[in-house]
Design goal:
The chain is about 25% helix and about 20% strand. By secondary structure, the chain is of the alpha/beta class. Helix 3 runs parallel beside helix 4. The structure holds ligand AOF and zinc ion.
């Protein structure tokens, strides 16, 4: 590993501390004479960028330093001023960038501006890792759609509930904490009406040791508006609609009176051929709201509908070392399924992570 790669690896690690959607996670390390003089990361959208935090820590010591940044420094006025100007003003001499920024407001112009100001810029150090870190951000700016992940928590025999409907809990504490972290990093968390009626989920992010983590947009896919007005997800929105926004996606033309003024947004969307919410229309709607990643938390009918619509990009299966059996106990993916193995949704090879006692399997859904 070269010296540049070592510093970049440190910057990548720092970046993962952020909860930045719809912004990318970015880390920055400032090095002078082989020593770190400042480092920082982007914590949450609307707050200063990684470079600005690192520069603030370095103060005068940034003069003549090399900046290792996991993403091309921005050159636009967004929620915050451009990082290029801050780096130039601080007297940074060299900038090492892992990958260019796909945001149309930047796209190479950040690097060009730094070079015009006389800084030397190197691009491409640990690029694959930097792209993987912000996969949703790249996916969104390259396709115009959010990255959609199907999340399942199941027993080893593929059940997501017992035959009586018991679901609490299938996986252990570590796996559940991990899911809350994912929720906090996701643009939106989705659940189908079946799951809302069966489990009454809050769909918020709760992180141990963090009293007010960033919250995703919560979405209930409810074709015929059966969401009970007193369910936990709605109560949360009523208490604090700014922090806990809730959107109900339906095909029903008229939102019921009970929901008016409750802090819940009801959106009527076109229906698919089965009379359910058209998931393409829903995905496009989320994209217009700058939702770059969506965690679909079930249930099994909604998961199958996302696969059938060709919209699911990846699957994340938490598998608990438990067996529950029961031919009527629901499994991870339901709907009608496919008739033959030739029609099966093909996945990439798994990556495996242990969150004892559970395991997590992750794979991409390959295009049909
Ligand atoms: C950087 N460093 O740490 C981040 C960058 O609304 P704003 O002002 O926060 O701008 C968001 C855009 O800035 C985002 O889409 C991406 O292009 C860039 N993010 N750039 O130089 C950072 N988070
Ligand atoms: Zn910036």
């Amino acid at each position: 590993m070269t010296e540049s790669e070592r510093w970049m690896r440190r910057a990548l690690r720092l970046a993962t501390k952020g909860f930045t959607a719809p912004n990318p996670m970015v880390g920055c390390v400032l090095v002078r004479n082989g020593e770190i003089v400042g480092e920082g990361y982007h914590f949450v959208a609307g707050m200063p960028h990684a470079e600005v935090n690192a520069l603030q820590q370095a103060g005068e010591r940034a003069r003549g330093a090399t900046a290792y940044v996991t993403l091309e420094p921005c050159c636009h006025y967004g929620r915050t001023p451009p990082c290029t100007k801050a780096l130039i003003a601080a007297g940074v001499r060299h900038v090492v960038v892992a990958t260019l920024d796909p945001d149309p407001r930047v796209r190479g112009r950040g690097v060009a501006e730094l070079r015009e100001a006389g800084l030397s810029v190197e691009v491409g150090v640990l690029e694959p890792a930097a792209r993987a870190l912000n996969r949703a951000f790249f996916h969104f700016h390259e396709t115009g759609l959010p990255l959609i992940t199907l999340k399942v928590a199941m027993t080893l025999d593929g059940k997501v509930a017992t035959f009586t409907g018991d679901t609490r809990w299938i996986t252990g504490q570590k796996a559940r904490n991990y899911v809350h972290r994912l929720r906090s990093q996701s643009g939106a968390v989705l659940a189908g009406i079946g799951t809302v009626l069966a489990d009454d989920p809050r769909l918020d992010a709760r992180l141990p040791g963090r009293p007010s983590p960033r919250q995703p947009l919560r979405v209930i896919v409810d074709s015929h508006l059966r969401t009970p007005p007193c369910c936990a997800a709605i109560r949360l929105a009523q208490q604090n609609p700014q922090t806990y926004p809730l959107l109900i996606a339906t095909t029903a033309p008229q939102p019921p009176k009970e929901l008016a003024g409750s802090g819940v947004e009801v959106v009527t969307l076109p229906s698919d051929s089965a009379g359910r919410v058209d998931l393409h229309a829903l995905t496009r709607l989320l994209a217009t709201r700058q939702i770059i990643s969506v965690l679909v938390e079930g249930g099994p009918t909604l998961h199958e509908a996302f696969l059938k619509a060709g919209l699911a990009n990846r699957v994340l299966f938490f598998i608990a070392p438990k067996l529950v059996g029961g031919k009527s106990a629901p499994t991870a993916i339901e709907g009608d399924g496919v008739a033959t193995l030739a029609e099966a949704w093909q996945l990439s090879p798994f990556t495996v992570r242990r969150l004892a006692p559970d395991i997590v399997l992750e794979a991409d859904v390959l295009p049909a």
